[in-house]
Amino acid sequence: MNPKSAMPQKGNNKSIMMLFVVVLVVVVVLLLGIMVYPAIKDKFADSRSEKGIDENAYYAVFLSNGQVYFGHLADISKDHPELTDIYYLQLNQQQQQVQVQPAEGEQPELQDQSQEPELSLVKLGDELHGPEDKMVLNMQHILFYEKLKDDSNVVKAIKEDKAKE
Length: 165
Prior knowledge:
Blueprint: H1 3-6, H2 10-49, E1 59-63, E2 68-74, E3 82-92, E4 95-100, E5 109-114, E6 118-123, E7 134-136, E8 142-147, H3 153-164
Antiparallel strand pairs: 1-2, 1-8, 2-3, 3-6, 3-7, 4-5
C-alpha cells in the first residue's frame, strides 16, 4: 500500500468543500423561497385579479344553484370572495279571484286565476334567519359575475330602495 494514496489530496478536499457550500446555498435559497412564496403569491394574485373589480360598482353573481345575487364584490382572486350590500330577485305570483257567471239556478262561483309572475328585488337581511349584509362565497360555486351598468334596471331599483331609507 502506498502511503501517499491513503492520505487525502488537497485538490479533492477543496472540491468536496465547494460542493458542500453550493448544496448548502441551494438548500437555504429553497427554504427562503418556500417561506416567502405564500405572501408574494397573494400579493401578485391580488394585483392581477383585482384590477377589473370596481369597488363602487354593483355586480351580478351567478351561482351554480341557479341563484343570482347583486352587490359589491371584493376579494375575487381568493377562494372565498365577499359580496356586500346584497339584493336578490324574488318571484311573486299573485292569485286573483274571478267570479264565474253561473248557469241559471246555480250559485255564483269564485275561481282562482294566476296573474303573470312578478319579480321583485329584495334586500338581504330581513329573512327569518336574520343574516348580516355580507356573504362569503365559495369560488367553486360561482359560475360567472357581471358588472352592472349604472343605468341598469337592477341598479336603478337598488338606488330607489336606498333613497327610501
